[in-house]
Please model this.
Amino acid sequence: MASDERRQRQTSFWKALRAVRVRSIPRFTLRMPGRSHSGPLPPITSGQEFLAAELRSIVTALSVGIGQRNVFKPSGYREAEVYLGNELARLGYTVRRQAYTAAGVECANLDVEVVGRDRPDEVVVVGAHYDSIGESPAANDNGSGVAATLALAKRFIDAKPVRTVRFAFFANEEPPFFFTGEMGSHVYATACKARRENIVAMMTPETIGYYSDEEGSQKYPIPVGGLYPEKGDFIAFVGMHESAKLIRRAVGTFRRECRFPSIGAGLPSIVPMVGASDHWSFWLMGYPSLMITDTAPFRYPHYHLRSDTPDKIDFGKMARVVEGIEAVTRDLADGAPVA
Model:
């Protein structure tokens, strides 16, 4: 039975990938609305300090309290899932669990949602992967993204958005499942498509906690090198060019609401790492999607290493970014349709 499920997932995966390749014409969307913040950051607020402490607590629970969490250590994987489920239930959410088997281990995606008051069938998804690579404690990749998603879920529990807002936590983003039908987000997005869900926007916070003011600290994939800052002090909104309207909308809102450096780009799927997270799975299904990231391997020297620990994260800056993501999420949930 498990092998039949696996074959079905892989068949669905390759079918979706072929469909994308047929419709995809490479384009670059680099011009973004608004102006990125430059110069010194404003003093941190008490609210941001509180949020920074909250984010630190979640990242520490995942990376220090649990540590390795993947199919190679099922006990840690299960512990991380239970931790997230309990935190969401404590907030008052009804937690849904989508279980499937990969490498002989039961894995699970979790999600919760706030149903929209006027357009409940239009869904905004914020989702992050909670698995780790190898034996890395994975504080930044992707404890930071999970912490952001959990903190956002807390801030939306009493909201009454126009559209439905869903917060998801995915299994198996990391190798050996990366870019396969066994990625948790691919299993999830495939099910959404089968149910004909109208996902109008999907955002994944992916490795969002490391910043540097040093010149030369930022690298880029070859096609866009030299077009962006050499200092790794910004947050990036990145996705495939088919999602350019969503990317521009998100960057515009972020720049309007958050005084923090930012860039945005809609790029061809062949650009290295442009699809390197769970937004890729939603793109395969034809949903507008983007990744919010500190650019991970292009900046973070501890990427995928055992040294990816909480002390490497700037929680004050991360809190500012999460506030900005909250503003973007509220705009997508309550504002005009992405056009």
Q: What stands out?
A: Helices lie at 2-23, 46-66, 74-91, 139-156, 184-194, 244-257, 279-284, 315-334.
